[in-house]
Design a protein that fits this description.
Length: about 290
């Protein structure tokens, strides 16, 4: 009887933690698409995943974790103890302070492409689900510039893949990504067999490149089913293969695994692995189109 009780208890726990949850906006009660689910054990992330386009996610029964962190750009993150997980998790939008609008005389605008999207390709490198890669874009005009689009070069997409765009200020402590500039979540898709230069229009976001420059890049979310718009089993890494260049004498590309660490790593280790004897570093061919 004691063993039977133990088995029933274990079965009950598996039912609880294999349940489907839905992440919703606390105000509108609408699903929050592609929210990040991070599983934490003793204060350290151990693994993670994303909700689907419908905000739904199946909690795993076989993962060792004590808390879950649910987050999405534009919302306050929520940390929940394992025992307190419920079928619906509500995220609250963060308050946004709008700048005062000053009306001035409209002058003709000139488009510029900043960054490295037109640099000659040296090699390609793929990123898989949960990997985030950003590149520092210098602002040589030394004043804020309106951002028109985000540019990146890829060799070829193997399948339709969802990705999240990120814009970060420079960290006040060191030269690496700091606070997120975006106040709204921006999800885009790369269709299968897409290759070459990809341009993502961001004019509707009213973004500015700060005078000191910023880090811009992509977080790979996973392969999407063409018919239902949600994730399918993603067993292959590197569904997005970015072009890299080696024309810069410093590492301006930073990478992290969102499900494993909160810290960033530049491409110094990649340079060493490539046995690159030059003083230049491998950097992803990302860029921005701006107007001044």
């Amino acid at each position: 009887m004691k063993y039977l009780y133990a088995l029933l208890l274990l079965f009950g726990l598996n039912v609880v933690y294999s349940q489907v949850i839905t992440v919703k906006d606390a105000t509108t009660q609408e699903p929050v698409p592609f929210a990040t689910i991070l599983f934490i054990q003793e204060g350290k992330p151990v693994t993670g995943d994303y909700c689907g386009q419908d905000g739904r996610f199946t909690m795993p029964a076989d993962k060792a974790f004590d808390t879950v962190e649910v987050s999405c750009i534009g919302y306050a993150p929520k940390v929940i103890a394992k025992a307190d997980i419920t079928p619906i998790i509500l995220l609250t939008k963060t308050a946004v302070e709008l700048n005062e609008v000053v009306v001035t005389k409209t002058l003709p605008k000139k488009e510029l492409v900043l960054g490295y999207s037109d640099f000659k390709k040296s090699f390609v490198s793929g990123i898989g689900k949960g990997i985030e890669e950003v590149v520092f874009i210098e602002n040589m005009n030394n004043k804020p510039l309106e951002i028109v689009s985000f540019l990146f070069s890829i060799k070829k997409a193997k399948a339709k893949t969802a990705f999240r765009i990120h814009f970060y200020n420079i960290s006040p402590e060191n030269f690496e990504p700091g606070a997120e500039i975006l106040i709204h979540d921006v999800i885009n898709y790369i269709d299968a067999k897409t290759k070459g230069l990809v341009e993502i229009d961001v004019t509707g976001l009213n973004l500015e490149l700060p005078a000191e420059g910023a880090f811009v890049g992509i977080e790979a979310l996973g392969v999407i089913d063409e018919t239902i718009g949600n994730f399918i089993m993603d067993t292959e890494k590197g569904n997005i293969r970015f072009e890299y260049n080696n024309l810069i004498d410093k590492p301006v590309t930073f990478i992290r695994n969102r499900f494993k660490v909160r810290t960033w790593e530049d491409t110094t280790r990649l340079k060493n692995a490539l046995n690159n004897d030059s003083t230049n570093y491998p950097n992803a061919s990302f860029g921005l189109k701006v107007v001044r």
